[in-house]
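Same chain as my last thread, 270 residues:
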Amino acid sequence: MTGYITLNYWDLVIASVFLLLNGAVSLGLHLGLERKLAIAAVRMVIQLVLVGLLLKTLFALASPWITLLVALFMLLFAGREAWARQENRLRGWWGYGIGTSAMAFAGTTVILVALLILVRPSPWWSPRYALPLFGMILGNTMTGISLALDSLHRSILREQRAIEAQLLLGASKWQAARPFLHTALRSGFMPLINSMAATGVVSLPGMMTGQILSGVDPTEAVKYQILVMLLLGGSTGMGVLLATLASFLRLTDERHRLRPERLDRPKETA
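reply #2:
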């Protein structure tokens, strides 16, 4: 098979029947999810159509500066999403800046290695390769960072007295908070570990499936998927570690005191 099978709009309409059935089930069981399903579906379609048009234009223009501008926008939006997914956030610029900076360092390092050394497209900044890879790297790193920081901040607020008691007994801030740092790091790594463990046995990843459906040899698709998963692992690990340590340093000081007032506390309900 050398070509790929094209889809028409009626194919998409038929596929949407399954989502309509979900909405009908929600209505019948009074789950209250039908409106959310409809909004999410419409939003998904609009976003994907716009992204498709944008990518088509970018591929035609092939400008390094526009590619860089789009990548910067993706990074800033991912930073905002990582910040929004945390229930207890660092106050001020720190809440947004730590996650975004960690993603910027990890994502930029990994994507440059991928483009300059591994994939080697011509030109190396080609938007056809750079933007999809950068998007996958950012998405996974964003999830890991948001989970890790949310876990760390929850633990510090919940176990504040226990941590301060250990500090009063002479423990360093690293010793007092070690269990919570470990838990936060495990939370950030877990989605990627689960994804890697299930890949190929439980599920075929979207990228690999798309390549196979478009006519790429399965063995070649497998090599690309392994490459992508390794890149995601490296970026997620780097980003989670940097963000967790930076956030912890912000929540303590050089005198080994805990500074929970730098966190926004959850609103109390009556």
